[in-house]
């Protein structure tokens, strides 16, 4: 390979002058190490002893810390959610860099890289001569090793003083860089140095390292770079800002062609190929650099992930250390998000609540039994433009993760009183007369021990003018009857439901305002994620699992840094949770507040509405997903406001309700994700463990009395057999019917009476009298006499 210096036409006197300078420098320094020489003339004012002492006082080598790399947040299926970085870099081994990229960078920056040591005297002399002839800097004199040292010092500088020292124009810096360059050449291979250099270098427009540059400018990988792509990237290193092709395409074009010409001049590529490539355009295919959650496909889930990890002391002693790890550790953050669920949630909240509405729509999806957060979404996009409805507040998660203080959850809290009542042994058939309004003495409600008695009185009102009447735990819950729950909570006390709600994930931390008899109506503040987590406990048959958005952190080599397994504990006996699920399924049946919402598989739930509809809630769940949706009034100042009298999502809200106002959000998501959910039924509560479970009377017609008795007792009923026999078409001695009859629902433990057939069917019902006389035929038809009995339809 010929030396281009031989072809340069530089006046001999200038060449001799520069050679003289270099000779003087080498003489002053007294340093010649493996053909190395110092490439600067500014040291002429230094004594040789001072320079020698400076070299001797430096450490023998420079510690190379891991390079800052971007971290990726990925969904459950591995698809990207967001990228976090201080420096947008993805390290790659040299074997994953295209040969033409290596050739291009060596050709333009240090063409004798593999032939010289830490400094290239011949290349330095060439650069001095060329730059002097041109009257400016045309070619660099530093070797790739020296450049790598400078980049390393700058990358590892943490303080402003260290940053100044890494960039100052001084002899001391040059001496330091040379000393470290010598050490690198002694301790590492050329390939190692080139690899680190390619991963360290800044390529402009916010990207560091050749892999990130390839992805950003050409949407490809470093190993697939073509000649003209590689030449453009190699040309950027000298002046990443000035040659930035996104800002200065003409300068980038010229610089790229200089690299191509240089490669031809060095016989790396044929001249004909160089000329052909130089005529082509830049061929950019930009992949935008999207740093942070603002550019995420799930911005507020991403924000939740980041805040969740920033609270983990295992990731650093301080919040700053943890943030640095997330932004420079090259981590792969594996999350629980299901993109299908996220898309459904986003679409639903955006359909029913507009960004600029005086309300916020939000929904959270949590998996029972694992606590995995499958999606969170809200109607206000992430951003700083308030006039467009944007917000940086995450309204879906608890305050410590998002900034919102939460909202009153209304009657969703009745489920905690219900569960407490069942756990206390109160039969599900317990009945209270529940009038439209009810006066109570607050001293009748038990407080937590040591907190004193409640004082005063309260008048409870049913929502929506609900009429009074006798209600049991099924019907009182389905209709969300306030005066029924006022009486049920009087039996349970306030302390136990309050503690249960906390154990199930609701962040109650202000007992002075929350631990009150009106707790059952949703006193206190909560987020959709907390309510979804709590109801997921019912779906998991009493096992509470803390919400978690992350499953594992992997380093850049795909090794597990930390796992985030589920954190679960049993907070309710299984039979109690089964009974709660049984009761809450009634919400979707006739008489329930959610009746009419689409139910595509066994589903339980609860609505919630606060006074004056400041917030409306609907929470529905199956054994494999719990979803809590909310629409809360928030005025322009960010304060709670009534939904009533406002247009929300294009719908005028006269009097908001949990099912009517917010239920459609829940229903839209459920409809979209149901095809992805296994159709799993709830467990039927055990009549042996739970008193007063409402059970359907099984059909036992035609069975022997003994077999029928066993079937009914297994279903939880008390059984008696009536004396004598009745008319029936079933064989004599078998069961004719029961009372209550087959298909009827009644409380477990209720009495069911078995009636035995005599084998003769009952007489048919009398024929209706004819409206007018008909002429009889000449031949009379004989009649058949039958005995009473029939098809065993049963009496009710």
From TrEMBL:
> PASTA domain: which residues?
691-758
**Which reactions is this enzyme annotated as catalysing?**
Preferential cleavage: (Ac)2-L-Lys-D-Ala-|-D-Ala. Also transpeptidation of peptidyl-alanyl moieties that are N-acyl substituents of D-alanine; [GlcNAc-(1->4)-Mur2Ac(oyl-L-Ala-gamma-D-Glu-L-Lys-D-Ala-D-Ala)](n)-di-trans,octa-cis-undecaprenyl diphosphate + beta-D-GlcNAc-(1->4)-Mur2Ac(oyl-L-Ala-gamma-D-Glu-L-Lys-D-Ala-D-Ala)-di-trans,octa-cis-undecaprenyl diphosphate = [GlcNAc-(1->4)-Mur2Ac(oyl-L-Ala-gamma-D-Glu-L-Lys-D-Ala-D-Ala)](n+1)-di-trans,octa-cis-undecaprenyl diphosphate + di-trans,octa-cis-undecaprenyl diphosphate + H(+)
InterPro entries noted in UniProt? Beta-lactam/transpept-like, Glyco_trans_51, Glycosyltr_51/Transpeptidase, Lysozyme-like_dom_sf, PASTA_dom, PBP_transglycosylase, PCN-bd_Tpept
User: Which UniProt keywords are listed?
Assistant: Carboxypeptidase, Glycosyltransferase, Hydrolase, Membrane, Multifunctional enzyme, Protease, Transferase, Transmembrane, Transmembrane helix
What stretches pass through the bilayer?
20-47
What ranges does the record list as Low complexity composition bias?
777-787
Pfam families reported in the protein's UniProt record: PASTA, Transgly, Transpeptidase
The record's region (Disordered) falls at 757-796
Q: Which GO terms describe its molecular function?
A: carboxypeptidase activity
The name under which this protein is listed is Carboxypeptidase
């Amino acid at each position: 390979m010929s030396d281009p210096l031989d072809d340069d036409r530089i006046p001999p006197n200038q060449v001799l002058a520069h050679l003289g300078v270099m000779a003087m420098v080498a003489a002053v320094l007294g340093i010649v190490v493996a053909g190395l020489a110092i490439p600067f003339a500014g040291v002429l004012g230094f004594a040789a002893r001072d320079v020698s002492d400076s070299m001797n006082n430096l450490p023998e080598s420079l510690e190379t810390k891991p390079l800052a790399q971007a971290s990726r947040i990925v969904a459950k299926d591995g698809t990207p959610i967001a990228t976090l970085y201080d420096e947008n870099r993805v390290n790659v081994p040299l074997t994953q860099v295209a040969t033409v990229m290596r050739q291009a960078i060596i050709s333009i920056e240090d063409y004798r890289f593999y032939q010289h040591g830490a400094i290239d005297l011949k290349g330095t002399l060439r650069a001095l001569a060329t730059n002097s002839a041109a009257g400016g800097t045309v070619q660099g004199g530093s070797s790739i090793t020296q450049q790598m040292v400078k980049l390393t010092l700058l990358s590892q500088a943490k303080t402003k003083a260290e940053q100044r020292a890494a960039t100052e124009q001084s002899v001391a810096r040059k001496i330091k860089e040379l000393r470290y360059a010598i050490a690198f050449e002694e301790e590492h291979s050329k390939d190692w140095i080139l690899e680190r250099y390619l991963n360290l270098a800044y390529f402009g427009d916010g990207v560091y390292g050749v892999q990130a540059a390839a992805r950003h400018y050409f949407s490809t990988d470093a190993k697939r770079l073509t000649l003209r792509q590689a030449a453009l990237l190699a040309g950027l290193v000298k002046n990443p800002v000035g040659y930035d092709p996104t800002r200065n395409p003409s300068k980038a074009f010229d610089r790229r062609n200089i690299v191509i010409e240089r490669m031809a001049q060095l016989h790396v590529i044929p001249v004909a190929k160089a000329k052909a490539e130089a005529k082509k355009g830049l061929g950019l295919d930009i992949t935008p650099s999207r740093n942070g959650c603002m550019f995420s496909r799930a911005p507020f889930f991403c924000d939740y992930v980041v805040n969740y990890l920033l609270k983990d002391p295992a990731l650093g002693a301080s919040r700053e250390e943890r943030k640095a790890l997330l932004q420079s550790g090259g981590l792969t953050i594996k999350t629980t998000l299901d993109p299908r669920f996220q898309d459904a949630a986003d679409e639903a909240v955006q359909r029913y609540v507009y960004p600029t509405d005086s309300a916020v729509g939000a929904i959270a999806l949590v998996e029972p039994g694992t606590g995995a957060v499958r999606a969170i979404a809200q109607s206000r996009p992430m951003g700083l433009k308030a006039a467009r409805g944007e917000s940086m507040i995450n309204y879906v998660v608890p305050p410590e993760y998002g900034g919102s203080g939460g909202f009153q959850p209304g009657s969703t809290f009745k489920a905690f009183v219900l569960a407490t009542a069942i756990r206390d042994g109160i039969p599900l058939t317990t009945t209270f007369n529940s009038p439209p309004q009810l006066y109570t003495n607050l001293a009748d409600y038990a407080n937590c021990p040591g907190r004193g008695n409640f004082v005063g009185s309260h008048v409870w009102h049913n929502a929506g003018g609900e009429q009074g009447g006798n209600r049991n735990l099924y019907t009182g819950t389905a209709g969300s009857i306030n005066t029924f729950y006022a009486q049920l909570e009087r039996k349970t006390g306030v302390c136990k439901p309050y503690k249960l709600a906390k154990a199930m994930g609701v962040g109650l931390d202000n007992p002075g305002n929350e631990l009150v008899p009106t707790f059952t109506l949703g006193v206190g503040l909560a987020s959709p994620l907390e309510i979804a987590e709590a109801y997921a406990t019912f779906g998991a048959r009493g096992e509470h699992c803390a919400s978690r958005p992350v499953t594992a952190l992997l380093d850049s080599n795909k090794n597990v840094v930390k796992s985030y397994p589920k954190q679960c504990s049993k907070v309710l006996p299984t039979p109690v949770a089964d009974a709660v699920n049984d009761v809450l399924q009634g919400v979707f049946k006739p008489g329930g507040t959610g009746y009419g919402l689409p139910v595509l598989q066994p589903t339980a739930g609860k609505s919630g509405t606060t006074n004056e509809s400041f917030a409306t809630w609907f929470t529905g769940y199956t054994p494999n997903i719990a979803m809590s949706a909310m629409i809360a009034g928030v005025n322009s100042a960010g304060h709670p406001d009534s939904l009533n009298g406002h247009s929300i999502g294009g719908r005028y809200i006269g009097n908001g309700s949990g099912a009517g106002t917010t239920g459609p959000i829940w229903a839209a998501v459920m409809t979209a994700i149901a095809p992805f959910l296994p159709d799993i039924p709830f467990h039927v509560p055990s009549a042996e463990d739970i008193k007063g479970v409402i059970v359907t009377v099984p059909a036992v017609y035609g069975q022997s009395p003994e077999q029928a008795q066993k079937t009914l007792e297994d279903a939880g009923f008390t059984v008696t057999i009536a004396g004598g026999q009745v008319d029936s078409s079933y064989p004599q001695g078998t069961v004719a019917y029961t009372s209550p009859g087959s298909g009827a629902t009644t409380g477990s433990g209720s009495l069911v009476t078995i009636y035995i057939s005599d084998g003769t069917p009952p007489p048919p019902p009398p024929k209706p009298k004819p409206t007018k006389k008909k002429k009889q035929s000449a031949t009379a038809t004989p009649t058949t006499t039958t005995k009473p009995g029939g098809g065993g339809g049963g009496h009710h």
